[in-house]
Specification:
Chain A: It comes from Hyaloscypha hepaticicola. Chain A: Belongs to the ELP6 family. The complex is a heterodimer. Chain A is α/β, with parallel strands linked by helices. Chain A contains 10 helices and 9 strands. Chain A has one domain: P-loop containing nucleotide triphosphate hydrolases (Rossmann fold, 3-Layer(aba) Sandwich), CATH 3.40.50. Chain B has a single domain, classed as Rossmann fold (3-Layer(aba) Sandwich). Helix content of chain B is 36%, strand content 17%. At the A-B interface, helix 3, helix 6, helix 8, helix 9 and strand 8 of A face helix 10, helix 11, helix 12 and helix 14 of B.
Chain lengths: 277, 415
């Protein structure tokens, strides 16, 4: 693997400033998993390895995943040279499992994972995530905690009538108060954000738009508009949010709007390049 | 976690670990399961050889993943795919769990073609599944043209295929390869009936237990989805860790099989999410295949999109209208042996491949124009779609463009 973090994306993937919100959107066929893994990598591993300034750019990460189990993240993080078990034992990484038991009754003989969401009740979900955040906070070391929530929109789609976009938004605000920075990945398929017919579609569109407006910047993945190519997996568009203008000046310097192409190799390595390169 | 270590072994065992590891893997592998030539994860066959070849270079459906087959219109090609998938499971001794159908469905499965099986077995004594293709290529010389087509399809897999062949042959030089000669994907004949073994490993979970005339609480555990999940949980937790299970859900949400109550988003999405959790939990044992009637649940709706997002692979079958098939056989059919395609196949998502980000897999077929044919003896054959040569253009016909579409006339092709 040539470079674990694509050079073009380095400014975006660096540890986000305080109280920031980053939105990753994906569509069917262009998943954001590789991007989430890169965020994990930059947050957990200090890019400039000078040990005296250690802790400056490092953070702890709470990863909440509603669509993928820990095995998937571990396997693919390992390809990036990231041993999640090691970070978990150092109390720098915590995983909240939103897949295994969210809608499944009890599965006998299941291993006891540190944190499992066991029902689609938003209060419980929020509590469980808070608990993981607290457990990392109590441990020694850097206070900065990055919260990554993978496909929170599942709660909206499958959670039933009680869970609306507003409730999710409220829960998010509560969680954002606890952490240094929040990274969300949501689906932004056309039928989910543009149709707005059924309650499911309306709520999804409301949630995505709401978060996109509040986000510092949005990284949206989509398939190539002109068909498929063997050496291109998709298009990554980076859009700067509205509220970045009036807040941190520093982030504005390094964030510029951009559209690039990316290719995820079979070994998990990612190439990011401009059009025509 | 043991499954992880196991998967990595074939990759390492190329040269150094040749003496001890290959035998140990081979013994552990259940029937009808082989490591992917790409990354060594375990795969099983869908029962349709050309579909196996499309799954992003894994040459089979990776265990722990699901496939959603969508179909528009009133045809049931997806149902045929399911039947081949079920038949393959029965033949390989896998446990097959079916939702919403009764035992009659199981009696209608296509049977194995005996002759080609024995011929295949003969030529196949040297290695496992990947060699399978080679033998099919060789043995097809005098046989039907269809096998030639399959071999030709696999030539696109060339690079990795040769690599894996090397790897496999180096493995098979090790002592006592226990599943040498095992067939990964059988040939089935739609006109034959599969004879089920007497203690059948097929389980049928009806979708409606009884008409619900009583005013009971509909959305508690009495829902057929929950019954099915409970059935799966009990079976999976009770069976040994080397048994392989196939989950089959025909016509999900079809009103003929399921009550309208189930098509509420929370109901079906929770079920699919739970199914995904099960697949991941037993990631070395279970695969699932689901068909969905697209006409009732179009792809432009958010609900369908969520069902797709919750599945690992998404295929869409778009059969040609029946009138097109009828007219198709008339022009130029006499000159070309090939059967006209019966519809188009679109790949929207592939297991593993797209979960990683989409790219790097060889010959995924993603984004290609693919067509499928269903015939009695050959089953479902998926191949790249191409327009036929222009009528009377004999050079092009000799040039080996073998696909007859027929719907496209001369006018369509002239640019």
């Amino acid at each position: 693997m040539s470079s674990r973090i694509p050079p073009l994306l380095e400014p975006y993937l660096a540890l986000p400033p305080e109280a920031s919100l980053i939105l990753l959107t994906s569509v069917l066929g262009a998943s954001s998993n590789w991007l989430v893994l890169r965020f994990l990598h930059t947050a957990l591993i200090n890019p400039d390895a000078s040990s005296e300034r250690q802790g400056e750019n490092e953070a702890k990460v709470v990863l909440v995943s509603f669509m993928r189990d820990i095995a998937f993240w571990k396997e693919n993080a390992k390809r990036l040279g990231l041993d999640l078990d090691k970070f978990a034992s150092k109390k720098r990484f915590a995983f909240v499992d939103g897949l295994t038991r969210l809608f499944l009754p009890r599965v006998p003989g299941g291993r006891v994972v540190e944190s499992v969401l066991s029902g689609p009740d938003l209060a419980d979900v929020s509590l469980e995530i808070q608990r993981s955040i607290q457990s990392l906070k109590e441990a020694v070391g850097e206070e900065k905690i990055v919260l990554i929530i993978d496909q929170l929109d599942l709660m909206l789609a499958a959670g039933g009538d009680k869970i609306r976009a507003v409730n999710i938004g409220e829960m998010l605000i509560g969680l954002q108060e606890e952490v240094h920075s929040t990274i969300l990945s949501l689906s932004a398929d056309y039928p989910l954000v543009s149709a707005s017919q059924s309650p499911l579609e309306k709520d999804h569109a409301a949630l995505v738009l709401n978060i996109a407006h509040g986000a510092d910047f949005t990284m949206s993945l989509r398939l190539l508009d002109t068909g498929t190519a063997r050496d291109i997996s998709g298009v990554l568009r980076i859009t700067v949010g509205a509220n970045i203008e009036r807040t941190v000046q520093d982030i504005r310097k390094r964030i510029e709007e951009k559209e690039v192409l990316y290719f995820v190799g079979g070994d998990g390595g990612v190439k990011v390049f401009e059009r025509g390169q | 976690m043991a499954s992880f270590r196991k998967r990595n072994v074939p990759l390492r065992s190329g040269t150094s670990a040749l003496s001890e590891s290959p035998t140990s893997i081979k013994q552990e592998l259940a029937q009808g399961v082989r490591p992917s030539p790409l990354d060594g994860r375990l795969t099983t066959s869908t029962g349709t050889r050309s579909l196996d070849g499309l799954l992003a270079g894994h040459a089979g459906l990776a265990l722990g993943t699901s496939l959603l087959v969508e179909e528009s219109g009133t045809t049931d090609f997806g149902g045929s795919l399911l039947k081949y998938y079920a038949s393959e499971g029965v033949v390989q001794g896998h446990h097959v769990h079916v939702l919403g159908m009764n035992e009659g469905w199981g009696r209608d499965l296509p049977g194995v073609v005996e002759t080609s099986k024995s011929a295949r077995k003969e030529g196949n004594s040297s290695g496992d599944g990947v060699h399978d293709r080679d033998t099919s290529r060789k043995s097809s010389d005098g046989g039907s043209g269809e096998k030639m087509k399959i071999a030709w399809r696999y030539e696109r897999l060339g690079e990795f295929g040769s690599g894996s062949r090397d790897r496999n042959s180096s493995q098979s030089t090790g002592p006592s390869t226990s599943n040498s000669g095992a067939i990964f994907c059988h040939d089935f004949d739609l006109s034959k009936r599969l004879i089920l073994p007497s203690p059948s490993l097929m389980y049928f979970v009806p979708s409606t237990s009884k008409p619900d005339f009583e005013f009971t609480d509909a959305n508690n555990s009495a829902s057929p989805f929950n019954t099915f999940l409970n059935h799966l949980i009990t079976h999976l937790s009770a069976s040994a860790s080397n048994t392989v299970h196939r989950i089959i859900i025909p016509n999900l949400l079809s009103p003929a099989l399921h009550t309208s109550e189930l098509s509420r988003p929370e109901s079906v999405l929770q079920f699919l999410h739970a199914l995904r959790a099960l697949l991941r939990k037993y990631s070395a044992q279970v695969t699932a295949m689901i068909t969905l009637p697209l006409t009732l649940y179009p792809r432009s709706t958010g609900l369908t999109r969520w069902m797709e997002l919750l599945s690992d692979g998404v295929l869409e079958l778009a059969p040609f209208p029946s009138s097109a098939i009828a007219t198709k056989s008339t022009p130029g059919a006499s000159t070309i042996q090939e059967e006209p395609p019966q519809g188009m196949l679109k790949i929207h998502r592939l297991p593993i491949f797209h979960e990683k980000g989409g790219g790097g897999g060889e010959a995924s077929g993603f984004g290609d124009d693919l067509a499928f044919t269903l015939s009695r003896r050959k089953g479902v054959v998926i191949k790249p779609f191409s327009l036929p040569p222009v009528e009377g253009d004999s050079e092009a016909q000799q040039g080996g463009l073998e696909h007859d579409h027929g719907k496209a006339t001369k006018v369509d092709i002239e640019f």
